[in-house]
Structure formats: structure tokens, C-alpha cells
Amino acid sequence: MDITWADFVEGAVAAIHERFPDIPIHLEEEGGGEPARPCFIVRLAAARQVKEIDRRYLRTHSLVVEYLPDNVLTNFHEIAEALYDQLEAIQVAGSLCRGSQWSHEIKNGTLYFAADYSMYLLRSEAPSPKMQSFKQEGSIKNG
Q: Is the pTM value of this prediction over 0.85?
């Protein structure tokens, strides 16, 4: 499984940047206090993985995108509509990954947009030990 949580975050960042090239995008891990507004902040809110059959797993990443406006007259619902369109599907490690469970809310002057992205992963097979030697003996009975 070579796909990580960072691949999902990078896919969301690239999609947002494509639609809003002039608005800075920050990752939650960057820290350093309140960023200059307007800006987006992208973070991984949760992740879960379910074992399917054999080496196959279903991994889901829940991403949250915050939009911090530069003034109180911002139309948050227009920004949210653009995010619904832009984040419907994102590129994750070269594959298209469709979102689900989209939602948005506005609290304390900040737009919070959330979406889940699920992808099936195949865990590498552990190498099995090779047999040193094998000798088979037998005979055929007539009878």
C-alpha cells in the first residue's frame, strides 16, 4: 500500500488551487499562528480502514477544508458551491478518487467544508519461504 493520507490532502489542495489560484492554501500541520486572510486550510479530520477480502482494504479519509475570508461580506455559499464542484473527485497518487458525504457549515465567520474519500488498497504479499528440497516417492498398484 503506497498511498498515504498525504496523497489525499495533496489531491484536495491541487483541486482547490485549480479553482482558486489566487487564494493561499495552508495545511493544518504548518502552525505558526493565524494565517493571512483570505485563505484555505486543509486538514485530515479522520481516517479509517476496513479489511475486505485477503489483502484488500477499504481506506477512507475524511478531509475538512476551512475558508477564512478577508471580510464579513463574503458569500460563503458561493465558495461552498465551488468546493462541491471542485472536490467531487480528486487525483490521488495518479488515480481519480470520488468523494462522498459532502457537507458544509458556517460557524464563527469561517466556512467548514467536509468530504470523505475512499479507495481500495492492496497490501503487498509477504514473501513465502522457499522449500529447500522436495522428494516424492510412490508406486502404482495393479490390481
A: no
